[in-house]
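Working notes for the structural subgroup meeting. M.R. asked for a predicted model of this chain before we commit to crystallization trials. I am recording the input and output together here so anyone reviewing the notebook later can reproduce the run.

Input as submitted:
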Amino acid sequence: MRFALIGAGVIGTVHARLVEALGDDGVLAAVVDRDVDRAGKIVAQYGGRAYATPAEAYAAEELDAVSICLPSALHADTAVEALEAGKHVIIEKPVDITLAAADRVIRAQQETGGTVSVISQRRFQPPVTQIRTAIDTGALGRVTSGIAESAFFRPQSYYDGDGWRGTLAIDGGGALMNQGIHALDLLVWMLGRPVQVTAQTGRLAHEGIEVEDLASASILFESGAIGLTLASTAAFPGRPVRLTIHGDQGTAVLDDDELAYFAAANAEQPEAPVLDGPDGWAPTELAHLAQYRDFVAAVREGRPPGVTLEDGRRSLATVLAVYESARSGRPVELED
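Returned structure, recorded in token form:
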């Protein structure tokens, strides 16, 4: 599969490495960035040709898929352009910063028949797969609650380094939209459709930003289960993601990329799948590669990818409900 990478920043370099790791299943044919010299640095390491705009790359190259690694508010327009050009699409999280933008991509996907996946690589981690299997097989019984914690730290320089970070217009949000959305996505994936959110946010440890560096929320799900989430970039020195799922017959805990605890009244711990990849890659990197492999397989097999565009929209809708509840001081209802 021939890929174009759109956006040659830090995350773009990560995606170039992932395409390279696909081996015979993927080749980086084009790197697009308005700073062509920056695109050229990725090309020098991972191959392909540098272009200033997607249109130039689409006109010059035979491409199958596009990986969008731009600032969040640019995702939807770029995805629609790619779909209309006949390309399949991977979008870095979040899908965009508004539901209207996400819906534009959904309409374009429906009209073109392209495959679209939103990055949520933690779903592919073996311990996460074990927890989901325990839910699906009934090992945990009725799922009653969950807790997703993303207690990270970002120094002031993180926000000062790029003109768009920490802005409402381009970043769309802070600790939850950009960091905590991964763990929130897992919580929603495990517990089902969220129907009501009550939340608070704060900006406590950073200056000159328009977004939160701390968010907490209580989420009521359609099943009656209740989820709690905390997202922070103000928790020095930062801790790994922690996810706890409780049921009336068992409990499972993800901590530090491992299944740290599992107990079930009438079931054994599910077997962990094995992810293969380059030596020395971290668990989250292998999961990222697994999502790329799933995307390639989904295109070839004509099936939905493991993380769909609708999945990305649901996570975005939950984030936006958190922000609205925090602004209004009231619970916010979510529509499916």
